[in-house]
């Protein structure tokens, strides 16, 4: 798949590379447009969750769009559980490490990356199953579905 890059996996390694005094990280995909202060998000009470994320508007549950690869073999996963988008992640670094999110994600990828549409996102949803904090959708409003797929007009300027 042309849209996949090995760089997408780097977000899985960031918390482990940080010094102990770093408590939180806010990960933003490069196509994220910030239109207001992120301070309220960064100061949010995470309640012990390793990460906060927004529910994906397209794949709303683990079973949607064919489900995350391997879903049927993981009997402890509820297929109707919410699925989040990994484009905006509020990470509690200490909890991430305690919950072994990196290790669980990498183990999942070793088994299923070849069959996944969104390998890093599926791995994170697997690794943080039942422990992630659902953020209000305002923090990751995926608006691409509202845009026209093509512009059909002709724009001219000046003399013809």
Q: How would you describe this protein?
A:
- The protein is of the alpha+beta class.
- It has one domain: Alpha-Beta Complex (Spore Coat Polysaccharide Biosynthesis Protein SpsA, Chain A), CATH 3.90.550.10.
- It contains five helices and four strands; from the N terminus they run αβαββαααβ.
- The chain has a four-stranded mixed sheet with strand order 1-3-2-4.
- The chain is globular, with a radius of gyration of 18 Å.
- The termini are far apart.
List keywords for this structure.
160 residues, alpha+beta, four-stranded mixed beta sheet
Concise summary:
The chain is built from five helices and four strands. It has helices spanning 10-17, 39-42, 93-98, 101-112, 119-127; strands at 24-28, 51-55, 84-92, 133-134.
* Fourth CATH level, the homologous superfamily: Spore Coat Polysaccharide Biosynthesis Protein SpsA, Chain A
CATH class: Alpha Beta
Q: What's the architecture, going by CATH? A: Alpha-Beta Complex
Rounded Rg = 18 Å
Percent strand equals 5-15%
Mind describing the biggest β-sheet? 4 strands, mixed
**Quick check: average pLDDT?**
88
Shape: globular
**Total strand segments:** 4
Kindly identify the CATH topology.
Spore Coat Polysaccharide Biosynthesis Protein SpsA, Chain A
Note the gap between the termini.
42 Å
Number of structural domains = 1
Helical residues, percent: 10-25%
Give the strand line-up of the largest sheet. Answer: 1-3-2-4
Compressed to H and E, one letter per element, the order equals: HEHEEHHHE
Quaternary structure of the protein: single chain
Number of helices: 5
């Amino acid at each position: 798949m042309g849209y996949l890059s090995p760089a997408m996996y780097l977000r899985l390694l960031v918390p482990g590379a940080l010094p102990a005094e770093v408590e939180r990280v806010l990960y933003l995909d490069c196509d994220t447009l910030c239109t207001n202060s992120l301070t309220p998000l960064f100061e949010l009470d995470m309640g012990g969750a390793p990460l906060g994320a927004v529910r994906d508007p397209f794949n709303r549950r683990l079973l949607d769009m064919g489900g995350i690869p391997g879903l049927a073999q993981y009997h402890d996963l509820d297929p109707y559980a919410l699925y989040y988008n990994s484009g905006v992640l509020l990470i509690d670094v200490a909890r991430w490490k305690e919950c072994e999110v990196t290790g669980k994600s990498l183990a999942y990828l070793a088994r299923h990356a070849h069959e996944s549409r969104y390998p890093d996102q599926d791995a994170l949803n697997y690794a943080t199953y039942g422990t992630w904090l659902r953020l209000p959708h305002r923090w990751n409003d995926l608006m691409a579905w509202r845009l026209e797929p093509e512009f059909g007009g002709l724009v001219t300027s000046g003399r013809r």
